[in-house]
Specification:
The structure holds 2 protein chains of 2 kinds. Chain A has 5 helices and 3 strands, in the order αβαββααα. By secondary structure, chain A is of the alpha+beta class. A 3-stranded mixed beta sheet of chain A has the order 1-2-3, with helices on both faces. Chain B is mainly alpha-helical. The chains are: A alpha+beta, B mainly alpha.
């Protein structure tokens, strides 16, 4: 039974800002789902991911606070920028922050970690033969 | 002990007794109220407290102070409302989807999990698969 909001207005702002920054820095699309998920978390996360508008370039983080589980799904193109190892690191970073009771902080940290791995490598000498 | 014989010795003895006697009498004289020959202001204990008044003063007032302090301590968290605690194995809030489809929170998230569009999604090409990672805490 839903009662109350998961995040305060300030926390929602922080998360929205982290998403905007990550999208701006990496060119990928980031999305965060927080809520109870019934059934297999991976399957449900993939299903949610496919509903996104640009699923191929999207990175979805599904967090189930009830089961203490999270799942990161990277799209086909996003996977080249955020490989499974980088996603694993971000997932571990988030989980360790969630474990001390800080949902919003963990999401912001995790998005930062994903963003760092997804950042385009600077192209040096692009204008030289 | 023999009584003094000479007059000088008798005088000395009398003086010594008078000094000792007066020294011992000073505290007794200072403590004149202890003799209670007359009532002093403040020595009347009054009619005494009833049981109700005793309970009110010695239990009611401390309990009231306790409650006020407890309220002051708890007020900020009550005002903030529910918060997430790990390992409580319950989740009270409605789903939130940041950056979801059409990016409208709440009803979009509800629709996502009720699965209205599940059928059209199963046709998605399975050749290219998503990557990702999971974690638990």
């Amino acid at each position: 039974m839903p009662a109350g909001d998961a995040f305060s207005a300030r926390q929602e702002q922080d998360i929205a800002k982290a998403i905007a920054t990550a999208e701006q820095q990496s060119g990928l699309k980031f999305s965060v789902y927080v809520g109870s998920v019934e059934g297999d978390l991976h399957a449900q996360a993939v299903r949610l991911h496919r509903q996104l508008a640009d699923a191929d370039t999207a990175v979805l983080v599904v967090i189930d606070p009830r089961r203490n589980q999270l799942q990161i799904v990277t799209g086909v193109d996003a996977k080249r920028r955020v490989d499974d190892r980088a996603a694993g690191l971000a997932a571990a970073a988030m989980a360790s922050t969630f474990a001390v009771g800080d949902l919003a902080g963990g999401i912001v940290n995790g998005l930062g970690s994903l963003m760092e791995h997804a950042q385009k490598a600077p192209v040096l000498h692009a204008d030289q033969p | 002990m023999k009584p003094p014989t000479t007059p000088e010795a008798r005088t000395r003895r009398a003086l010594r007794a008078a000094t000792l006697g007066s020294l011992a009498a000073v505290p007794l004289l200072l403590a004149s109220p202890a003799f209670a020959l007359h009532r002093d202001a403040g020595d009347d204990p009054g009619p005494g407290m009833s049981a109700v008044a005793t309970i009110l003063v010695y239990i009611g007032i401390p309990a009231a102070i306790f409650c006020v302090i407890a309220l002051l301590v708890l007020a900020p968290s009550i005002a903030r409302g529910n918060r997430y605690r790990p390992h409580q194995l319950s989740w009270w809030a409605a789903p939130v989807w940041f950056g979801g489809p059409r990016d409208e929170r709440g009803d979009t998230a509800e629709r996502a999990l009720t699965g209205t569009s599940l059928k059209e999604l199963t046709a998605y090409s399975e050749a290219q698969t998503e990557g990702g990672a999971s974690a638990r805490w």
